[in-house]
Amino acid sequence: MALTEELVLKALANVRIEARKFAAFYVFRSSNDIFKALVVTILTQNTNDKNALRAYENLVKVVGDITPEKLVGIGEDALANAIKPAGMHRIRAKKIIELSRVILEKYGGDLTWIKDLPLNDARKALLELPGVGEKTADVILVNLGKPTFPVDTHITRISLRLGIARSRNYREIQRAWMSILTPDPGRYLEIHLKLIQFGRDVCRARNPRCDVCGFKEVCNYYMSNVKGKVSR
Ligand code: SF4
Which long-range contacts link 176-181 to residues 24+ away (Cβ below 8 Å)? Predict the structure, then answer.
């Protein structure tokens, strides 16, 4: 049986999205500000969304409004101190200061124009910023209502287990989901968030809960590693 959009929607129907568990989504939704979303996305790299949001909210307490001017103004030490809950705070502080400087120097501190660009131009502009990789760019783009599908470690693991991708290649996994789903930014964002939550709760890195999973019948991992053992 092939993986269809209908099956995806059915398998993820009970997954609930709490905005605060998705730091970038939460910050973008509450601020509609690309720079703020970039800062919190840098804070989520290699840590969980809860710690990233704590670090971000600490930073808000220190600077008031998060803007490139304010962050350059407080300097690296104070910034590092404020974002400690995210871990690797010195490295992150450097990255955030560099990002702020470039945005100030190249664009006078304003990124609002990016939302009016076509998808590929907007992606190119984001990727040219320091510390912004493909996933970060796509997270911002889909939150801006552009038709793209960001891939994270949970989505990579689920895709490999399902067998819809053969490698960890970002573009291959992205293409696989975009070919299954209706080409609509709202749908891409919904399934992106739901898959992450599903990866946290059900298709976990260790001990996936295949017994309660709606993807069983189309899942390579289940067919080769679980089904035989269950029916024996
Ligand atoms: S059946 Fe198991 S391995 Fe496959 S998607 Fe579901 S939880 Fe993950």
Answer: 177/149, 177/151, 178/148, 178/149, 180/3, 180/4, 180/5, 180/8, 181/5, 181/8, 181/149
